[in-house]
Amino acid sequence: MNGRIATRVCQVIALFLALVPFGALVVAGIVVGPQLGPRMASHWSGGATPDGYSDTWSSFWIFVGIVIVITVAGIAAVVASVTSNRARLLAAFATGMAGLSSLAWFVPALATAAAPSPEQATLDARMLMLIPVVALGVAVFLILRPAAEPVLDEDADEAAPTVPPLRAGDRLVWTGTTGTAWFTTPGALLAAGGVACLVVAAVRGTPGLVGAAVALLLIGGVFLFFGRMRLRIDARGMRLSSALFRLPIIRVRLESVANVSAEVIDPLRWGGWGFRLSGRGLAYVLGKREGLVVERQRGLAIAVTIGQADRARDALELLVRQHRELDAERS
Questions:
Q1: 285 close to 272: Cβ distance less than 8 angstroms
Q2: What 8-state DSSP symbol labels residue 258?
Q3: In order along the chain (331 residues), what is the average pLDDT of each group of 10 residues?
Q4: Cα–Cα separations (whole angstroms), residue 230 to 171, 281, 284
Q5: Cα–Cα distance for residue pair 104/49, rounded to 1 Å
Q6: What is the CA radius of gyration of the chain?
Q7: According to DSSP H, which parts of the chain are helical?
């Protein structure tokens, strides 16, 4: 088994483990939920008897929403772990937090179901379930393999120019897409979950679900917006836009470009993973991988992880050079 296959196998196992808290919560809702009344014990202040209660199904759906959001973050971190060692730790942390959030409903539900009434529910040894939750997070960290260092082949770029010289009347346009299905797929699932919560709220008359539905729709929309981006380079400059919503988030005009380079982009140097704003500039980073870096004469630098960054660099450099030559002729 070569290194790449081993990495993928470990990643698939880690993805399965990251989904365990959500699956456990759903199973608990199906198995334990029918044994509960409309009210369940939800809080203990150290005594044997509870001192707080909540609506059974409203609290269940709220925790489902919380666990979904954390699980999506964990899945994204597992995927990013291929190119980012810090993502291994984030994946483990997210899996553990999802497990704790699942237990926050599961353990009180078990205690309530086992008692004659919610007022008589006791936790007893059920808190020992914290041990496998912690072990689950540790397992995710240990299973994920350390990220390999990416390499950008600059020698090949210099030997074979990727963009031919422009002639009079030529129009150069370079486009590329970047992103990950691990944003778009969870985004679609979150949006679908939000719609489902709205339907349940309308049918069951539980307005408490509306807030969870709105949160799921908003978070799902954000994931969908940033899940797939389109980079376009033409005579107007460079634009990075949401491929789904067609809305630009970054614009760079040709006259403002000071320098362009294709390099391996390190998330740690650009404020982290995702769409980031740091002291160095604006960045859309999906891991430690090849990308385009544009330094402007005034304002923040721009970095975008994208395939064939060398071709994007050559196209933008050629357009900037042509733009400067035209300005020089006019003056």
A1: yes
A2: E
A3: 70 87 87 86 74 84 85 79 72 87 87 85 75 85 71 47 55 85 75 76 68 83 88 92 89 92 88 83 87 90 91 91 83 69
A4: 19, 19, 11
A5: 17
A6: 25
A7: 3-31, 56-80, 85-114, 130-143, 154-159, 181-204, 208-227, 309-330
